[in-house]
Amino acid sequence: MGQSNLSTKTSLNKSNFEKVLISRVDSVLNAISAESRIVDEPLRYTLKTRGKCVRPILLYLTGDALGLNYKQLDNYAAALEVLHTYSLVHDDLPCMDDDDLRRGLATLHKKYNDSTAVLIGDALQTLSYQLIAEDKYFRDEIKIMIISKLTKTTGQDGMIRGQFMDLYFENNLATQEEIIEMNILKTSLLIETAMDIPLIIKGCLKQEWADLQRIIGLSFQIIDDIIDLTQPTEILGKTAKKDLLAQKKTLPLLLGIDAAKEELKNNKKDALGIISNLKLSDHPLKFYIENLFSRVK
Amino acid sequence: MGQSNLSTKTSLNKSNFEKVLISRVDSVLNAISAESRIVDEPLRYTLKTRGKCVRPILLYLTGDALGLNYKQLDNYAAALEVLHTYSLVHDDLPCMDDDDLRRGLATLHKKYNDSTAVLIGDALQTLSYQLIAEDKYFRDEIKIMIISKLTKTTGQDGMIRGQFMDLYFENNLATQEEIIEMNILKTSLLIETAMDIPLIIKGCLKQEWADLQRIIGLSFQIIDDIIDLTQPTEILGKTAKKDLLAQKKTLPLLLGIDAAKEELKNNKKDALGIISNLKLSDHPLKFYIENLFSRVK
């Protein structure tokens, strides 16, 4: 335990790192259960259908780049995935985005019912703080800094505000600035926080990291919005063209797909420039960011 | 700041303590806001309609009995009230208990809409952890112990499991033991945790306190269930006889009101016996517990 196995980055390479890191997240998520069957079944159903694990992978890779050991980051990586899953479960509810399909399977409220989705979403939010509070590797001072950051990121002035904007703009016009603000709040902040966690642990305050985090967070939402418009349901694992049908306000819908792709091209160049300045051109983080920019689903 | 004003219990007496303590909770809750108007309005609407503050008052009074200063407990007391409010906002949703009235006002989803109630409930849960993480009085080690306790109390094996049982028993029979287990999970645990917080802070592990906490938590639910059956909507501030109509399983419905009142009488005797053993017979905590047992709404 403890610091004995610092920096295992040599065990990762371009072809295996995603698989290795996702299997770490899976092993934490698979160990999560509830005592009662009526809670355990829907809880496991939701956690079993984990997605691409973008937030945990960014957390692990940033930690690796800073010399942290993966094992020490497991609870934080899982907490981020659980927190993200809570937001999806509630976002899919009929009174929200009303989606029947998520990650290729029936959404939780379709598989069970709405009350199950409300309660399991609530339990997942609780669980994310429990995973952090019960981590055995870092000092309580670090955990409180991370909890404080996460609550700001996801609370009434963060992700929740972004969700309110998203619903509001279904029936109202939005400027480019408003869409960018919404994207920062509902998506970018949590992605930035994934990378912030190892930075907080290491006490690293470099501006380059903050710039990189924001570029990745904003680009991720644009990529997601382009995919929603251009890919069929079978590829997406969720209902295609939902944004268009629901009159969602997204940058590709406002500016056109070509302009959005041009924006992404510039963002990618900026991100790789920073990666180079941080001397991470041979690090899996670089490959992963390149992959994100060329993601199709 | 700090420890300068330890134990202000002399400032409280039988007639003023509830007013004094509720005004402390109000001052924390009134200071809570959201940057964006579309979030701020429903957030304030919900927090403005705070209830009887049973959990904060029990927290403050237990703290006082242990020699803690109220000011140091403000964020924890508010966190408990905010957490309880999150559970009510989601519990009132149409897919849950479907209630139109709460604390004498329209429930949040009636006043706004379902998505607002889902999102504000979510934000309130987040806020409760933020209030604890940002407290300036106690060590991070204490805060992590409290967060850990709260997540266990309210998560998939605690309050959420109680809520699942509550919905399940609308369409299924329940034994007396199952109803008691449900009451512990959905109500008693959070009330016990309110009193646990000062006990954790002081490192106090006396069995008498644990017994007292359980008696109060279980009795509170029975009192609430009797009131639901016997008082009109105008007095309740919420729709009367909901339990009966929804075929909820409660102890007064299973055993009859007289048997439930007999149970309460025994519980009150036991509680006052413990209070006496703890040498708190002249403390406001005793008067408050007596009041709880004679509560009609």
CATH class call of chain A: Mainly Alpha
Largest sheet of chain A: 2 strands, antiparallel
Q: In one word, what is the shape of chain A?
A: globular
The fraction of residues in strands of chain A falls at under 5%
Biggest interface: A-B, 49 and 49 residues
Number of domains of chain A: 1
- Mean pLDDT of chain A equals 92
In the CATH hierarchy, the architecture of chain A is: Orthogonal Bundle
| Contiguous runs where pLDDT drops below 50 for at least 5 residues of chain A | 1-10
Q: How many individual helices of chain A? A: 15
Fourth-tier CATH superfamily name of chain A: Farnesyl Diphosphate Synthase
Please provide the count of β strands of chain A.
2
Which properties best describe this structure?
two-stranded antiparallel ribbon; globular; disordered N terminus; homodimer; mainly alpha; Farnesyl Diphosphate Synthase; 297 residues; 69% helix
Explained architecture:
The structure is a homodimer of 297-residue chains. Chain A has 297 residues and is an all-alpha fold. The first copy, chain A, has a single domain (16-293), classed as Farnesyl Diphosphate Synthase, CATH 1.10.600. In chain A, 69% of the residues lie in helices and 1% in strands. Chain A is built from 15 helices and two strands. Chain A has helices spanning 17-30, 37-48, 54-65, 70-91, 108-111, 114-133, 140-154, 159-168, 176-202, 207-230, 233-236, 242-245, 251-255, 257-277, 284-293, and strands at 101-102, 105-106. In chain A, strands 1-2 form a two-stranded antiparallel sheet. In chain A, a hairpin with a 2-residue loop joins strand 1 (101-102) and strand 2 (105-106). In chain A, helix 7 (140-154) packs antiparallel against helix 9. Chain A starts with 16 loop residues before the first helix and ends with a helix. Residues 1-10 of chain A have low confidence and may be disordered. At the A-B interface, helix 2, helix 6, helix 7 and helix 8 of A face helix 2, helix 6, helix 7 and helix 8 of B.
